[in-house]
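All the exercises in this workshop are built on plain-text protein records. Sequence and backbone structure share a record, each on its own labelled line. The question running through the whole workshop is how a given chain folds. The record below serves as our worked example for the rest of this section.
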Amino acid sequence: MPEVAIGLWCIAGFLGTGVLAVVLGGRAIATPLVYGTTLVIALAALLLALDVLLGGRPATATVLPIGLPGLGAHFRLDSLSAFFMLVVNFGAAASSLYAIGYGRHEHAPMRVLPFFGPFLAGMNLVLLAADGFSFLLSWEFMSLASWTLVVSHHQVAANIRAGFTYLAMASFGTLCLLLALGLLAAAGGEFTFERMRTATVSESVAATATLLALIGAGSKAGLVPLHVWLPLAHPAAPSHVSALLSGVMTKVGIYGFIRIVFDVVGDFSPWAGLVVVVAGGATAALGVLYAVMQRDLKRLLAYSTVENIGIVFIGLGLALAFRANGQGPAAALALTAALFHVFNHSVFKSLLFFGAGAVLSATGERDMEKLGGLVHRMPQTAVVFLIGCMSIAALPPLNGFVSEWMTFQAILLSPQLPQWGLKFAVPAVGAMLALAAALAGACFVKAFGVVFLSRPRSSAAATAVEVDGFSLTAMLLLAWVCVLAGTLPGFVIDALSPVARELTWSALPAQAGLPWLSIVPIAESRSSYNGLVIFFFLVVSGVMTAVVVHRLASRSTRTSPIWDCGYPLDSPVTQYTSSSFAMPIRRVFGTVLFAVHETVDMPRPGEMRAARFRMRVRDPAWRFLYGPLVRWIMRSAQRLNRLQFLTIRRYLALVFAALIVLMLVVAIWR
């Protein structure tokens, strides 16, 4: 059976789980049975993707007699779609395993179970679609299925607002993709990607289609300023769905951009790379600045996704620029770094959302100001969450470091680019990436320290208990992948070679066979990295330190006052909070970029009440773009609302005036 047919059967299986959930209704068996079924199907699709990606199999295609008359539905499975199928279904399998335990806490499971499998089906269908109509139909199906999951907790008004914002941005993104594919289809004469790929398009059409694809796919991925739905929708959904939205669905947006721009458009100007690089740099820097100022744990993770999407687009922009200038090896390095970060982010962001879900189910809190001390109550969750924090902060020897290090290596090759705009812009973007990496470290020191260390700040945190075995197993699996992909990155890089060769006509040298399992992406004299050596050094040094301390430490017990940072009171109110930890960064960047407004209400002398501190951080995208646009639409709608209360004579006059205008337009057009 052709590989693409197996993929379609897996998609049918995902759709079938929605029917199964409806049939089972609200029975207790529904949660483990539905999620267990999606786990099995996701593993089957994962094995299919691995077989295509690692087995060097040629692309397979099929046409189904559905869809538009005379067109049919075209589906194709190649190395690019196989890689993203691996990302999607690995995340789906981990989320399904996690949800077997976490789903028991859902108070309305029938608002989640019927749509979970169809959401997975929609993402996989986008990856297999090989014509414009099937692609857009699958894209919209994915958006609608995920919207139902975002508004599953519909009793909360903020979740309804999040769902509305998400639906509006998704519709806008689909419109841009429709226009991009329409331009390319007009040039090729057909809706199939194969015909578009071989058609000759003008530079203006290629540039317009690239820009529309960047906007349309970037809105789904979370590029600034198209990211506004993301910090609203991701916290609103259940945590295992949040992991899919943030760690997986945003990668489908990246796939849409790569498929249209790298594959279908093909020939483009180096300036397209400049636009994408600058957009990625701004997204990375602003995303992490948004994140570091948050006190809601899931909202912090959502804004962190914006940062990592920016890192991916930096690599994609560099690959576009290098490829347009005929520099194949450099383009392969940049593209491999971007795809490696796609995989890495899907792993550690899913792990962190699982950890946030574990904290939420154990304490009922997402507000970091009400947490603390959970390392004693939830030690296993604390360990895996720490691994995720270290990975997303790009600390060696974990996987997040490798892909960011490779991105920096690609940036260091930018002097080879002949365009002066790129020569100036790429180093500046490299500085923004370095700033983002430093701020990410501060952000996740805050996240882990405030949530898991120090003393509990609420009774819920003080009485928390460890989560179930299914949830822990899923988190441990992802933590091990973070370690393995960081210590043995050569195997991942080699697995990405077919994708790089397909899109840049070049690939990195084989890495897995190098001595000591090092990676040398450019040349041995220029740069190399060995995660395995760093891992063993850290393990051996840690063990030796523990042995030395244990052997040489005095066995006598001594007591002394603890270091209290100047606060003699043994109370949680004397600890660093999320807001106080981020205050220096907020004071430096917040006033200019985020219009931060702080209000301190101190008690007067003699008043027996606590001081109150309020802080408001406004997203510049809402302040300068969406806010004015929404206000203009509301004012226009109120004025146009008068048209609903006219007399019949005025309605007839309006119809007559519209007829005259149309006749004039037709006459002028002719």
Remarks:
- The chain has two domains: 3-533, 620-669.
